Amino acid sequence: MSKILDGKALSAIVKDEVKAEVAEIVARGGRVPCLCVIIVGENPASQVYVRNKVKAAEYTGMESRLVALPEGVSEDELLAQIRALNEDASVDGILVQLPLPKHIDEEKVIDAISPAKDVDGFHPSNVAGLWLGKDCILPCTPAGVMRLLDSTGVDLCGKTAVVVGRSNIVGKPVAKLLLDRNATIVIAHSRTADLSAVCRQADVLVAAVGRAGLITGDMVKPGAIVIDVGINRLPDGRLCGDVDFASCSEVAGWITPVPGGVGPMTIALLMKNTLRCYQKRIS
Ligand code: GUN
């Protein structure tokens, strides 16, 4: 039976680190850091995520602003909102919840956010910074995955890490962060031949494809660290990861649950990023 990597407990520690720093800023008479979250439309999953982000910001003592725009808002109006927030000296972080309605070009929206306020780490200049090894804002989910891996105390140097999924938000950046720790990286995807055999090589297996229960126990190397980034909604309404927890937890050394694994870490690292943007802006 594997050890559980408790993202809920670790995220509470990370949020408390941010809370302590915010309290110190306030005690020194500093301006309170401010996160602005923009949501377009009424996607129920996005509404839950956004509510949790705002709640987390409030918990840490930061100011949070929620801008809720109607589904039919034009791309120009959204871009104008972002430009206004870029210019607003009291705002440190800007997050536009994805996905956006089809009539809005996500790439244009991400490009419009000032890189200095890009708490998601999605702007091309932050992405370039990640790949060039510069000091930049890292995307929240990959940074949260690394913090979970660090909590195991396992040295990743020389280990084989298999990342299943090649998205810009998770798969590619998490692979780069693992590479930075001198792990040997395989990025697997929907066209990978014999996915089971590839996954069985992994000392660290990160699943980020959005397919419920894709990774089963027979695909896991005994003792491996298994990180489940998937959040899939089953027909009965339950949440389920990309990893079949029941079979994989019999084989893995460490495993993240869903819910309560990577999800809360994403939000905690968003708080870290907001504080970091604040600190960079005032220095
Ligand atoms: N939608 C799903 N994940 C994310 C995320 O990390 N950031 C934003 N902005 N939207 C998302």
User: Briefly, what CATH class of the largest domain?
Assistant: Alpha Beta
Q: Would you tell me the structural class of the helices and strands?
A: alpha/beta
Flag low-confidence runs: none
Q: What ligands are attached or bound here?
A: guanine
Strand order across the biggest sheet?
Answer: 1-11-8-7-5-6
CATH superfamily of the largest domain: NAD(P)-binding Rossmann-like Domain
CATH fold-type name of the largest domain: Rossmann fold
Note down, in words, how this protein is organized:
This protein has helices at residues 7-27, 44-60, 75-87, 106-112, 124-132, 140-150, 171-180, 195-200, 245-248, 262-282, and strands at residues 3-4, 34-40, 63-69, 93-96, 160-164, 184-188, 204-207, 225-228, 232-233, 239-240, 254-255. With 283 residues, it is an alpha/beta fold. It has a 6-stranded parallel β-sheet. Helix 1 runs parallel beside helix 10 (262-282), helix 2 (44-60) packs across helix 10 and helix 6 (140-150) packs across helix 10 (262-282). It is globular, with a radius of gyration of 19 Å. The mean pLDDT is 98. Guanine binds at residues 95-98, 120, 140-141, 169, 266.
Summarize the structure.
With 283 residues, the chain is α/β, with parallel strands linked by helices.
